[in-house]
Each structure stands twice: as C-alpha cells, then as structure tokens.
Amino acid sequence: MAAAPTTTAEDAENAVTSLNTTSPTFEWREDKVDVEYFQNDDTLPSVVRFEETDPGKLSPGLRIYAKQPVQLYTRTHKKVARARTIMKDKEGTYFEVGQTLLIPEDYEGWFELVPSDFCRASCFRSIAQVAEAMPRKFFTRSNLKAIRVAKDENGEQKFLERKISSGTVLSVDGLFAAKWRTSAQTGVFKKKSQEWVTTEVKYLKCLDSDQKEVLLPLSHSGKFNAIYERGHLNQNSVYRMKDIVCDLKLPIKARLLYGKAPVVPCIFTGMLMIRSMKEDDCVVGSTVLNKRNVLFEVPVDTPCSVQLAARPEEFTDLSSYKDAQKLCKKYALSYSSMIKLSPDLDTDQKTIQHIPADPAIMRKVDDALKALDLITDISLTDESQDYFMESETDSAQSDDLFPMPLQGSLFELKEFRSRESHTHV
Domain-by-domain residue ranges, the chain? Predict the structure, then answer.
C-alpha cells in the first residue's frame, strides 16, 4: 500500500470535533481482519478503523463509528437480555414502546417482578417482618438508623449509632434482645431521687458489606426486600438481571427498583418487558479523535473489515487519544455492564398494548411510570449514579429516629434465635 500523507498531532486535534467531522489521514495496514481476531492478549488494545463489508448490513448504531480511527480496548462475553420499555399514557393505558434495550447479566441494578395487575410488587414494611421471614440477605429501600457494634481500645464492646442508606444490602445473622438501663428523676425539689428503669428492645443483627455488625430494632418501619436465592421460596424478593435471565422463564415483566439509567437518551420508565436473552461476545472501544470521546461496543460477528494502524505512534501524542486511553481504562468494564440501546436502532417496532388483570387499575395515576430523564453520562469527570425508580408517593422512609434509648446503658445482649435455627423453605 502506498504511504498515506501524514499529519501532525495539532492538525488532528483541530480537525476532529465530532463523530461526523472529516478525520485527518493516517496510515493503515494493508491486511484486513474481522472483529473476532481481537482477544484480550497482545491484540488489545489497538487503534483501528473498520468499514462494512456488505453494504446496508452494518448496524446504524455502529455505522457512525466506521471509517475513522477508533480504539478497540477489551473483549467481553456475557448473557444479555433484550427488553423494551413499558409506559403508561394519559388515559392510563400501558404500552410497550421504544427501541430494544440491552441489559447485561452483570448489570448491578435491582429488579422486582411486575404483578399481573401492574401494581407495585409486595415488600416487607418493617424490620419485624424481615425478621419473621429471616432471608439470608435483604435490600433496604429506606434510610435507617442502627446500632454499630464495635470495640474500644480495651477490647470492650461499645455501641454507636450508625446511619444505613437506602440501597444497602445487609446479611441476616439472628435475633437479639437487649436490656437497656435508663435513669429518671422522681419527686420534687429536695426530695428528688433517681430511679433506674430497665427496657428490653429486640433487634435484628446484620452484617454490612464490610462484615461489620449492626443492630436494627424490630420496630423500625420502611420498605425492604429479600434478595432472591435459587431453590428457596422467595417472598418479597428483588432480583439481579443474572437471576432473571438464568433462572426465570422469559418473556417476563420486571421493574427496575434501583440502578443506573441507560447510557444513551431513550424512553425509559424502569418497567420493562424482557423478551429474550442472547450470549453476546463484544469488543468495547472508544473514539480517539473527539474533543469528548465516547464508548461503544462492537459484536464480534459484526459484518465489517478491520484495519490496524500502521503507525500507532501517530496517535500517542494526541491529547484526545490520551483522553480516550483514560476513558477506557476507567470505564470500559463498567460500560459493558450497563443498559444500552441496541445498535440496530430499531425505531420501527410496533407499539404493543398491555392490559392489566384488573382493568380498573388503568385509571390510576402511577408517577413512577413517567419517562425518566436520568441519562448516565460516562466521561472523564463524572461518575455514573444509581437511582431509585420510585415516585415520591411510593417511597417509604423510616420515621424511627433512635435505635436505642436516650442516655441508656446496655447491660445485657442475648441471642434468642439464630438464622440457622430458622426454618427455610
């Protein structure tokens, strides 16, 4: 292949400002490979350019990255769910709308299954109800105050108030009864005397993600869900996407309770019709010449030919390329586990109506099914955020302020039922 004209790093940066801007000229190797060629070995990461081999067959969502320098960074293989959003219109009718969403099995959000009447799935409303069921782990949708069990410098146990944020997963250990001693003054003026009062409080003892012990009063109210376990009777459970695609029969309706929004603008309410699952083998890549680079995925069976850069050093001094390196290093793996639009951009899909088991439900307003403007921005400066996909009227925050008596001292803490002694189905 004849040597192509070269360009300076400054020329390249000034020339490229968006995906649709003409790229400067770089040298490319004559031999062509397919995406399958790239493995997580010495072939990745690589600067390449690709173009479709069969006109019209390349997905529109990938065509915008073709015929320009891009970086292929890492290869992934996982199960991926195909889903569409369910939205409720002003008349109360439920419709399956929008493009196909891709939800990887390692997406870290929590889902509930949608009942036939389209109402919210059931959950535990107090720590006492959680204690009665004794799940191995549970998810809290409410902010709580608990007692943190710690040790002082002398090795003696001490008890501190600890805030537990909604979105936390706790492991259940057992039920404990604590006896607190509080003092109160009785009488008037000079005849005042101090009396000691003993109060017993029952707690659910749990372990947090750092394996630290916390005590939750059974009296605490809020919204809580058991974590799904295969082979168990899962009352009031929440599910990971891996549980849904591996253990449940598709198609199925599910609602995202807590997690990251899609990485691209789209219609998204959190309620989904999950229709199928497919094993996806992809390479995560990024643009390298944009003022603001973006990540994308290329399936290994994409009908395209790929050429590697003949002189990769042409890119190393470009600040946009350095930004792309940082972007991929920081976010490539997390990007591969997030909700994305199918690159097919199948906007021509028909709208499908869904009828609740109880049609009267259609007349009720559900703020949680409005389209959400929660588009995740993966950049070099912003961390993607988790959201609760609940309306304000549907959320439940604990009103319990103190997990232990004010000015009380603990003099006895006994376990009266361990989780292991509880009967599990």
Answer: 9-77+283-318, 123-232+396-425
